[in-house]
Structure prediction request, 301 residues.
Amino acid sequence: MGSGRFKIADLHGAWLVLIGVLIISPDALLVRLVKADDMTTAFWRLLILGSTLALIAFWRGMRRRQSLRHAMMPTRDEMLAGLFYGGTSACFILSIRNTDAANTLVIIAATPLLSALIAVFVFKRVLAVRTWIASVVVFVSLAAIVGAGFGGANTLGDILALGTAICMACYFNVVGTRIHIDAVRAMMVGAFLATLVMVPNASPMALEPLDPIWLILLGCVVLPLSFLFITAGAKKIPAAEAGLIMLNEAIFGSLLVWLVIDEVPSRTTLICGSIVIVTLATHSYLGLRQSRMRKRAAKTA
Prediction:
């Protein structure tokens, strides 16, 4: 750092991802603090996020001297990625509002494995044996979490959490296989499309006094900033290492909801959630170790 000034780009990738995870951890808590109904909460969260991303896209276009159309208009692939991102965002909000936050966050933690399985069946990739074993353990644990609340108050929220994880896994696969996609434009169009879906059942003016504060924090600060740090960090470190760090969101997010609004996870969620986190952490660690061993072998060859 020759200029002596602090720069985000100078941080190690792992620290960048961890900072992003810490920033996004209050997401579930802030959604729960909003007193408006589910559809209204989703409408405003998505609209504010989409508007923030649109401003970012416009600002980048100005810096790069691009035309307004070039800076803002999504490509066909970005539209596809946006559809999945919109599904992710909408399902996440509605899930958090209809089940325990810990249930949602633990189920979403399985996204990397879902992404890997989609890559097998859609893109015909080969998975390591450890991934198949981890998948079986995780899905049995998730089935226990969803099954424990089936027919009860958490059923809809747990199913929506699975929808969140599936949409997110599809989003990662689309972005991962089409490296030319601009993630900001993809997320922007996804947020706006999901907003339109919420319009018929939303009551935009029916907000409690503190609701705008939580929604602005979400759409203007928490989500864009976390995306900035996580994206910057993920480009510098192996996917397995990034995935390992991302698991902390389930822990930090659940802990915040527990401490602030005293929402205690069920015994089933605590036990099965612990199994999921340990399994995914072990899987990511083994993948990271194998990647490093290959790099060492390549250097000595």
Q: What stands out?
A: Residues 14-300 form one domain. Residues 1-6 have pLDDT under 50 and may be disordered.
